[in-house]
Specification:
Strand content: 35-45%
Number of strands: 23
Largest sheet: 7 strands, antiparallel
Amino acid sequence: MISTRDAELVLSAALEKGGDFAELYLEDKISNNISLVGGSIDSATTNRGHGAGIRVYTGLNSVYVHTNLTHREGLLKAAEQAAEAVGRARETGRDIHIAAQPFAPALGQAAILPRDVAGSRKADILQSAYGAAKGRDQAISQVKCQLMDVDKQVWVFNSQGLNAQDHRVRTRLAVQAVASGEGENQVGFEGPGAGTGYELFDRVDPAAAGRAAADTALTMLKAGQCPAGEMPVVIAGGFGGVIFHEACGHSLEATAVALGNSEFCGKLGQAIASPVVTAIDDGSIPGAWGSIAMDDEGTPSGKLVLIEKGILKNYMVDRLNSRRMGMAPTGSARRQSYAFAPTSRMRNTYIAAGEDDEKEMIATMGEGLFARKMGGGSVNPVTGEFNFAVAEGYWVKDGKIQRPVRGATLVGRGAQVLQRIDRVGREMTLAEGMCGSVSGSIPVCVGQPTIRVSRMTVGGRE
């Protein structure tokens, strides 16, 4: 997309007014989205995102300019704008020397690129998911299916000589089923995806995803209201990890920690969770939805232990906040596109597998709630206070699952919940999602084994 010499000229121009570090980020992205509603293709769109961002540091301050003019003249103009915004006295020019050979880490190449998949094949995937969901029961009144894929090339250069590039391919199927009866509607959702091409469907059955979405909707349509109060709660694996992601993960990002906006500030080396809890953010899992070979600053990705047996070990740190915190970057800098400056974000974040038996958790919990699937919610990253809807829940009494319940909401504070986890299951599973923050919406995985929280506030209507 750009020659090494042109990148050197752009970075040199960005530093002409006194910046001490400059970075050039470029991307070229093609994304496809096909939607099927009521058994027919509702829309099919292809978008291309193409542009660059230039960032200049002066100490702890950062200036960011972006443009979709990626020829040399366009980039030089953007670099000059960034330099002017620094606003310091003109300095003598700096010689920038960028590595001739790009650093190009890889997590494995996509076997079947989206551009090589016929439209008819994509339609077949959607029809398979739709047919399985709609045919599950007469109560299924509506099914919506979406098939999304992204093919993205990224280049990063900086004034320290970095020359790096990455190729990112992602594919995802989303199925939403609505069950209706007696004037009520209930929704079920399944959204399998991966950081791969269409080889995803060698292991993901679209029909199975459709049936799972329909089954959740049907179960909740027949469910009674959930009791309210403080009680033991067992949370299933996979998307159950959204609670850790939202209520604790965001509070471990340098975006919050460096500015003192986190309940975990200054607690490295301290016990912040139960000894049975080990939590990890790993961007290097091959083929995972949230994996990246390198972050959007060109730092290699990897496995980062956040909490080890209850002890806080690390924060997720980007380059700018590494200056503020005096800590090394962790490969966690991410952004939605060139239109956003990067900051520290999660990748694949999960509670690691433990040693407890899932059946024993329920058998010994007495009376409480089993949250099989989690829904959406909200969190205050400064205090860790959260509330999350339970998309599929079951009431447990005398250690046995009695009946499905709906209307349940889990309420609490992240640090408190971490301390109250008393069981962690043996099999960790991941689930795919999108995470929004100051640098836009990015793909992430959340995950955990089945866990038990000894006491938790449950909102309900019974």
